[in-house]
Amino acid sequence: MTSIVRDQWYVAAYGREIGREPFGRTVCGESVLFWRTEAGRVTAMSDRCVHRRFPLSEPPSHLVGDTVVCGYHGFTYGADGVCVAVPGQTRVPRTARLKSYPVVEQDSFVWIFIGDPALADPARIPRAPWLDMPGWTAVSGMEPLAARASLLVDNLMDLSHETYLHGGYIGTPEVAETPITTEVDEEAGIVYVSRRMADAECPPFYARSTGIQGRITRWQDIEFTPPCLYKLHSRIAPVGVLPNGDGTDPDAFHVEVVYAITPETESSTHDFWAVARDFALDDEGVSDFLRESNRTVVLQDVAALDVLERVLTGEPDGYQELSINIDTGGLAARRMMARLAAGASGAGGAGAGAPGAGSSAAGASGAGAPGGGAPGAGRSGAGQRGGGSSEAGASGAAAVDVAAAR
Ligand code: FES
Ligand SMILES: [Fe+2]
């Protein structure tokens, strides 16, 4: 059974990757060809010629005007995927057309809808405006991950791992020590996890980019819109410096860390990452440092998750996990992903109520306190749906066994 939720928007590429050369990438198990028309519009269609399945992204396939010519025998397709010419005859078979996919270019990403095109509502694509917005500078990249997408979701929803896996880069002791709050907006289809450190060591990632000396107030507010777009709203300021009453925050540094989690296959993932900042906008040295540091951090995750994928593949079915408080965000994300997989629509899909993966641990999220002013309304504590009576955690009370969800 597939774990990939198809009727959703996924990031397929950065806009800068798609130009006047055929570009192939596998998304949700489908081989997709991308190219830009002469007017600059991104197209997406099957990357397999209908004749003998030669990949249209593979040389000597090539573009001629607003058509792509198969490099094997010359079948030629328009921007809508319809075949317009075949060799040796004037009649083009009526069925000679490539599957074409809805695409939207937005916030520097190319989004694709792999499932039923009738369900592809562009208004449901979540936004990451800082990646392509005046007043912000962004660096970005993509690393291939030889692990299922759900492992990356787990990883990003629980940042306590920064202390251990990313020590010396972004991790400090306070990250693992500070409790989180988790909230779920069922209507909007968003999971929030907030960790606010009032007095923390400043990790090199922020010390060198902001120039702050000494200890900091560090906020990590996660906003995940399953299945693909993850945003970490990061606020860094000298200890004691808080936003003004009117919401302005001139003395803090803001970093938006964005991930797009796109399944390539059942067991591999495109790990798109971006870091946008509202300071040192024109400082190439800061850009280079953040790009290199974040890529290093991403590759630390990739190495760990690649190992984990190999381990899990070798496990017998029905293995058990043990979840504690730090996992409430990840468990909430699993429940929402399971609901999407069960057929509820994404945003606006509240009420479907599929129990979902890992539901036996819903109580672990029982705390569910408000997220200290993170944006959004109408949210509920993540534990609410599951009873929410137990509060596992450092105190050792009521750690919860979770049936393996994958
Ligand atoms: S495989 Fe494409 S034209 Fe023959
Ligand atoms: Fe990480």
UniProtKB/TrEMBL annotation:
- Rieske domain residues: 9-112
Q: Where is the composition biased (Gly residues)?
A: 365-390
Keyword terms of this UniProt record: 2Fe-2S, Dioxygenase, Iron, Iron-sulfur, Metal-binding, Oxidoreductase
Identification of the protein by name = Aromatic ring-hydroxylating dioxygenase subunit alpha
- Ranges for region Disordered: 348-406
Q: Where is the composition biased (Low complexity)?
A: 391-406
PANTHER family annotated for this entry? 3-KETOSTEROID-9-ALPHA-MONOOXYGENASE, OXYGENASE COMPONENT (PTHR21266:SF60), IRON-SULFUR DOMAIN CONTAINING PROTEIN (PTHR21266)
Q: What are the recorded GO MF terms, alphabetically?
A: 2 iron, 2 sulfur cluster binding; dioxygenase activity; metal ion binding; monooxygenase activity; oxidoreductase activity, acting on paired donors, with incorporation or reduction of molecular oxygen
What SUPFAM superfamilies does its record include?
Bet v1-like, ISP domain
Task: Establish whether keyword Iron-sulfur is in the entry.
Answer: yes
